[in-house]
Amino acid sequence: MGLDANDVDVSPVEATLWVLAIAVVVALAVPWFLWRDATIVAGLPAWIWWHIVWMGVASLVFYGFSRRAWGLGVEL
Amino acid sequence: MTLAVQLGVLGLYLVASLAIGLIAYRATDSAAEDYYLAGRTLGTGVLLFTTFATLLSAFTFFGGPNVAFSIGPEWLLVMGLMDGILFAVLWYVVGYKQWLVGKKHGYVTMGEMLGDRFGSSRLRGLVAGVGLLWLFPYVMLQQQGAGQAVVGLTDGAIPYWAGAALITVFMILYVTLAGLRGVAWTDTLQGVFMLGVLWVAVAWLATSVGGIGALTDQMVSTNPEFGALGGGAYSVQYILGTAITIAFGVAAFPQVNQRFFMAKRVETLKRSFALWPVLVVLLFVPAFLLGAWASGLGVAVPEGGNVIPAVLNEYTPAWFTALVVAGAMAAMMSSSDSMLLSGSSYFTRDIYRPLLAPDASEEREGRIARIGVAVFATATLVGALLTQGGGLGAIVALGDTAFGGYAQLTLPLLCALYWGGTTRTGMLAGIVVSQAVYLAHVGVLSVLGMEGVTVAGVTLLKASYLTWEYALWCMLLSLVVTVGVSLVTPPAGSENPAKFGVGAD
């Protein structure tokens, strides 16, 4: 019971990596490194392609989290 | 002829929704839990689509594309960060925890859950009251949007009041009959329908103009800024502030928060969590790009009109434009029907039952809930009719700022879910203070149209402080007050943090 991840079978290292991975997914949802960039690639601005690909990456990370570490920090 | 086709398409769509409601009605019993939560039995497809369709509103088809048309497609990133990523994280942090707690103790509403944990019917009523305060104007705006959409589609052949009333009657019919099961099933139809018509619209436009490359070229040559990320209205503060405020607001929006209690199995929550970002791309990329591309096509948007119907009218046949407007109506109905149901459950469970009729049976509560839906929808319809000609400015302002209003509930909610040291007094103070300060800002900025109030040389109640919008500062205030007051007040005897699985400090 409580906040710790007793019920979740991941090592502390893996738990830290999941938190980091989700932090990166959040931080780069907006491609800050393309700020003011106007390159067009294959019919769309490059930053729109980033958005499309990054949402796919986010889904994969969330899927991986839900398989491996679901319950981390949340179990009742 | 054209009018007959348009009305035929709209009519078919409404009848199909109602038919699904009737089928769901046969599967629903009269008890409140079944009525509000479909007996906690929703599977992945239906839960995902009902939550998703609930998030959508007139903004997906009208407001969002209009913004992309006038200031560029960067709203895609705001939406991606907000609904695709931050909301997914909150889906886990708030939603999964609420699902666990709700399953264990049988909660149906957020107010009920918090009231029970803190042993306070006052807190329960307060949370429900705040929920209803922002819900009423938001539903009203959806009906207003539906009325305007029908006027735009039929060039005024069907008047505003008739369009708004038509939508309202259909919603009351299937919501009162079939409850959440009917709402969830029609939402799934509406969600699939919306996705489908948007992609067909993009294909149609791209084919007639010469591909998406040509569309983008024309957009960029007309508005060179639209190709570059950021600039103009899109500052870093705008993108982050909007995404954060709305994502946190969505998590406490009654009809979304209530969906956290509905999943049958944890697998359902997991799959929805992972599919979230993909669904956001599938829906908003076509919707917002249609708006942005239209800016390069020289499409004339009538005063007060919307860009999507305008561009489709020029490039596709009338029946297809009618289908897309039916899609927009689907978006408005799918968010409003859920809001009606949640509003009704907030009222009957958290205000009517504890304060007025503690002994009411489940059956009786189910009946009151159905009456509540009809009364609520009729009242918001009257509101929507009165806004024509510029009435009810204050209520319209509340509807426009509703996400920020709900966002003020989310941080106190997170404190309650995760920190055993949260006290009843801390929750009451955090919610009351942040709502009061946020409402003061809305009153001064949106209702009175002032730029702030200067007292002794200091300007307060401004739209932004240190370049960040006021809603974010109010959220910070809600956190500081909840934590600060909790630290200096002892828990009351009837509080029970163990209900949320957190130990008291």
Can you tell me about this structure?
The complex is a heterodimer of chains A (76) and B (505). Chain A has helices at 12-27, 46-68, and strands at 40-41, 44-45. Chain A starts with 11 loop residues before the first helix and ends in an 8-residue tail after the last helix. Chain A has 76 residues and is mainly alpha-helical. Chain A has one domain (12-68). Chain A contains 2 helices and 2 strands. Chain A is elongated. In chain A, helix 1 packs antiparallel against helix 2 (46-68). In chain A, 22% of the residues are buried. By secondary structure, chain B is mostly helical. Chain B has 2 domains: 2-385, Sodium/glucose cotransporter, CATH 1.20.1730; 401-505, no CATH class. Chain B is 76% helix and 2% strand. Chain B has helices at 2-26, 32-37, 44-55, 58-71, 75-105, 110-117, 121-154, 160-209, 212-222, 236-252, 254-257, 266-294, 307-315, 318-356, 362-386, 393-400, 402-418, 424-447, 470-488; strands spanning 453-455, 458-460, 464-465, 468-469. In chain B, the strands form 2 sheets. In chain B, strands 1-2 form a two-stranded antiparallel sheet. A two-stranded antiparallel sheet of chain B has the order 3-4. In chain B, helix 1 packs across helix 8 and helix 16 (393-400) crosses helix 18. Chain B starts with a helix and ends in a 17-residue tail after the last helix. The model of chain B has no long low-confidence stretch (mean pLDDT 89). Classes of the chains: A mainly alpha (76), B mainly alpha (505). The A-B interface holds A 1-3, 22, 25-26, 29-31, 34-38, 40, 42-45, 47-48, 51-52, 54-56, 58-59, 62-63, 66-67, 70-71, 73-76 and B 73, 76-77, 80-81, 84-86, 88-89, 92-93, 96-97, 100-101, 104, 211-213, 215-217, 220, 224, 227-231, 239-240, 266, 270-271, 273-278, 280-281, 285, 289, 418, 498, 500-503.
